[in-house]
Amino acid sequence: MISDSNKNVVAMRPASEERSEPARSLVLSVENLSVAFGALHVVSGVSFELHEGETLAIVGESGSGKSVTSLAMLGLHGAKAKVDGTIVFRHGDRSLNIAVQPESVLRDLRGREMSMIFQEPMTSLNPVLRIGEQLAEVLHNHGKVSTTDARERALAMLRTVGISNPEQRLRAYPHELSGGMRQRVMIAMALMKSPRILVADEPTTALDVTIQAQILDLLRTLQRQMKMGIIFITHDLGVVAEIADQVAVMYSGRIVEQGPVEAILKAPRHPYTRALMDSVPHVGADGERVPLTSISGSIPNLAKPPAGCRFHPRCPYAVAGRCDQDEPALEAIDPRRRVRCVRWNELSLSREEI
Questions:
Q1: Residues spanned by the domain of 130
Q2: Of 139, 200, 286, 312, whose Cβ has the fewest other Cβ atoms within 10 Å?
Q3: Is 227 left (phi over 0), alpha (psi -120 to 50) or beta?
């Protein structure tokens, strides 16, 4: 049974945005990725694939490992981090394991083949450089380009992302732009070299809902034009419903459920996914707002994680002697879906039962 909240979440995607399934080439393959800072393992055993023109959303609470995973995609995890597993970027017959490349190779890859939109544009943009200088820098970092050509490309990208009076904006400093404009500048900067993969780390978090909708629509439009693969990091399942094709739900450094977005939002198999859905504001069948349901407790300390399923101390379905023993594997429940729960085939995760 699909609860009212499920209907609301799924309905957030425009009806015109039906997902077709053309053959898509694989652009990124992540296998058994783990990231540790000393003895602290913040990401463990993460695997997923990204295809051309596809959007993969990585979802979870703050501290679940989403951002560290996204930074590892571009080799931005920092010198003190230890990375295991493979992150294979593919372009035609070329395959490159990002996890073992030197900084010189990664520097050439970033911006040209893979780009990132960071979470807060006000802190990501340089406050003492004009917008035009920051956009042009992307081109100068990847080969010789004239000042005139760099300016023309910057103007073209500002027009592409919907910024009015682009000539004036090129001369502006970040603090002279609104939050929505700064986010559009970040998108323009990320797309200056038409990358194959775009990593967007909560790019709409600090924006009001109207600007958020505009940014999501812009990303969908640019994705269709450029055939980019997008990795979209968020905690908001409403955003996931609107933009994603595939979703990976992370908890305490591990993926606990993954698969096609419509299937997971209509019939979640992991209690944590269901709990995240219940935290999305929605209205019931009678049109009345339904009170939000919070998830009790907090994400466990990664230095001393609980035995068994890491979610069991907060899970209303946990069974003593079962869920607190061995950690469950990420089990395939059909060819396209996986879940990390020993009780997934016993539970009916409708709202009425939670």
A1: 126-194
A2: 286
A3: left
